[in-house]
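dumping this here before i forget
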Amino acid sequence: MNRKISLSLKVDADQKGQRIDVVVAKAFPEFSRSHLQKFIKEGTLKVNGKQTKAKKILEGNELIEIKATETSQKDHKPENISLDILFQDEHIIVINKEPGLVVHPGAGNRSGTLVNGLINYDSKLAYLPRAGIVHRLDKNTSGLMVVSRNERSYLHLIEQLKRRTVVREYSALVVGEPTTGGIINKPIGRHPKFRTKQAVIKKGREAITKYKTIEKMKGYSLLEVSLKTGRTHQIRVHLSYLGFPIIGDSVYGGRKKYAKGTSDELRSVIDNFKRQALHASSLALKHPLTNEIMNFNSDLPEDMTSLRKALKTNE
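structure:
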């Protein structure tokens, strides 16, 4: 897919003496500085019809024009996939992802992903890295995700994640009864034997997870978990390492599938729960344009609500 970009700007007299890259960055905030410099280097950004350089000093009253054709970064096919959108404006979309939905296309999942659905919903997202997705959820984890709708918001959200100012909280149903709460500060890296898995290893990257027990259910618990870092499978790895695996986690659950004294009926319910019982329940971030703090919440999905109810009957 291609898109045509056609923009123009008449330089004001009070902009005399300023560098052209500074002026166009203010005039066209939907593009990053590096993107605008790319236009300059390619010669698709011109001043009075002539190619220019980023350091050019403006004299005032020039006509700046950008005429470019861009190809989408990845040729993913738009697909009509139902999206549960909680909030949207011209800068961001907040989605409540259903369990079972793969986020990014990959081996074995070339279609039917969130990316395919997003590009179908807004074709401009095809020109952003990962269709504007700045953080991910595992296929079988449900809940809140934020998607950027333009380059400016994408860079802003990426910076927030780097600075750890985005607050992400999760609800998890686990085997066992942790104490009131705590912090898990253990490095995570690729498993030394099973390369598709992650593990707590000495040479791993810093990983910090905070958890709090919300409810105990005779051998099982509902936890509120928050991330200080964003490593792959972090919550699942950390809770399993602590000895409280997430119910339904076939990768990190290990042999501890049931608590002591679990009834046959409840064992059957747990066996038939085909995903990790993990839900991204809360998201807080700064709006990329206004810097307003925005808070979003998502209730437990129906399958986890039913599982929680069944766990309570074990008491």
